[in-house]
Amino acid sequence: MASAQTRLCGLLVMLVGSRKKACSPDPAISIYSISDMYRDKTCGELRLTDAGQTVKIAGWVQRSRKMGGMTFVDVRDRYGITQVVFDSYHEDNALFDAANSLGREFVVQITGKVAERTSKNKNIPTGDIEIIAESLKVLNKSEIPPFTIEDKTDGGDDLRMKYRYLDLRRPSVRSNLELRHKMAFEIRRYLDSKGFLEIETPILVKSTPEGARDFVVPSRMNPGEFYALPQSPQLFKQLLMISGFDRYFQIAKCFRDEDLRADRQPEFTQIDCEMSFVEQEDVIDMFEGLVKHIFKYVKGIDFSEPFPRMTWNDAMSLYGSDKPDIRFGMPFVELTDLVKGKGFAVMDDAEITVGINASGCAAYTRKQIDELTEFVKRPQVGAKGLVWVKVEPDGSFKSSVNKFFQPEELQKWAERMDAKPGDLLLIMSGDKMKTRKQLCELRLEMGNRLGLRDRNQFAPLWVIDFPLFEWDEETQRYYAMHHPFTSPNPDDIDKLRTDTGNVRATAYDIIVNGTELGGGSIRIHDAALQDEMFELLGFTPERAKEQFGFLMNAFKFGAPPHGGLALGFDRFVSILAGLDTIRDVIAFPKNNSGRDVMNESPSPIEQTQLDELKLELRPDKE
């Protein structure tokens, strides 16, 4: 019996050891199966020190080249590429003939001897060696792929998404998922070192339609009733704090039925965290530490100083955005008091006139300025026009409003905007919030045109003091800017009834390069204050109980002060990978219509399934 147990333990050790090697993305680590059936080396690990060894590799044919009496085949696996040489003078002519019949993406196993390459390739780690083939086995043939499996592929987005399993073979795509893997492991290690427990929360939850649209799931066992997929684990992490788990985290799947864009997918991943007995400063310090650690781990960047902080009001006033890109300047300067009453109706009738100083751009041609005007008129921006002023090298002014404003008046604009000879002033007028958002788009466009948004430069900051509420004109009521459980700033609690719109939240977002990396808040833990919050948001006591009764009941049993933060994991990976979209760091993403063109979902379901669920489909009305 003891001997059998010993053998079993030995087998488990072998399995675990093999598994550890198989999970490693390091090409220098060998991959061994228990029987060494298919390979004993990867295509990325062989070096000159291995010369003379007989090795076995397996992988996909990247390409083959016939040169006289020799055929060179590049074999690729997850770890790299190795060149294999087939010689027509080999004693086994069938081996050479078999090599010449190989096509792209054939799956092969090759045994041979490692030799130093005569013509070395400095662009790949294995470029100093090649394998002189002694045997070849075709493990599987391949049809001609619909696009080249290379970094510079000839496949368009739609084609690559349809054949995503082939796209994932490309090194550039694979490296994104390897980065994601490394970051997930390091985040877990870091949070574990800080006393956090990783706890899973349910995927089938109750619908709470106060935020984004829910994805709903019908229940067969409870006809006419539905689950929702969680937009976040918000309620459950608060319940965990009430349960006494004072430091929770989860790399959690979340779902929102929203219109898609570059940094949004219908299903996405959050680094979801919550802490008890904390104030805002504690949460910010903890997760600023995590972000700094990951930047150091992945990019070797050491942020020694605290991240800067900016209030929401300042972010909107200076940049027209609650997620400003501070890699470059061009802050907004308000000119409203300088432009009123001059007979220029666009500015006379506007709530605000505000501009940016595009330093050094006075040399812009009329064509270039017209392009900027057309940019702000695009539907995505929505402005009616653009005023421009050039400060010429001699200090004189040339502008689109010369007939309305005298040089001495334009001089006052220039002084306020700190303009120097050679600068270009770009100015917009209109409703306060809308105009600032439009000017924000123009500022970012100028940043792109001037090369000021370097992907290898990172500028994190915290935005704090968000409004607790936002007013909706259509429904004539307040909504929670974040969610109904966000605590008001303690200094503003007396304003809840008297000055509701100006109450600040104890909320905070962390921004990197104009992208919201994550955000959170201190939560309401007092049942009476939570009841008041629900009332201000238009909930009747009955509706509040229906939606959130289980949480409110839990508050009756001693809820600790608590708060947390969720970081967008997909966004974090994409920022560090220097990518424009989170789709490129997700193995099987959806397209901009929310469809998976590879497996053709969403798709209709069988009538029998609808009958089981007691559902009847209603046709769209034209």
Strand content: 15-25%
Secondary structure tally, helices: 17
DSSP E strands, number: 22
How big is the Rg? Answer: 31 Å
Distance between the termini: 75 Å
Q: Could you list the spans in which at least 5 consecutive residues all have pLDDT below 50?
A: 1-25
- Measured as a percent range, the helix fraction is 25-40%
Describe this structure in words.
The chain is an alpha+beta fold. It contains 17 helices and 22 strands. The chain has helices at residues 2-23, 93-100, 157-162, 164-167, 171-193, 234-242, 280-299, 312-319, 336-339, 345-348, 366-377, 407-416, 432-449, 527-536, 541-555, 569-577, 607-612, and strands spanning 54-67, 70-77, 80-87, 107-116, 129-140, 197-198, 216-218, 226-228, 247-255, 267-276, 309-311, 333-334, 352-358, 387-391, 397-399, 424-430, 460-464, 469-472, 477-480, 507-512, 515-522, 562-568. The strands form 5 sheets. The protein has an 8-stranded mixed sheet, with helices on both faces. Strands 1-2-3-5-4 form a 5-stranded mixed beta barrel. Helix 5 (171-193) crosses helix 7 (280-299), helix 5 (171-193) crosses helix 16 and helix 14 runs antiparallel to helix 15 (541-555).
Salient structural properties:
disordered N terminus; 30% helix; eight-stranded mixed β-sheet; five-stranded mixed β-barrel; alpha+beta; single chain; 622 residues; 22 strands
Give a brief rundown of this model.
The chain is an alpha+beta fold and 622 residues long. The chain contains 17 helices and 22 strands.
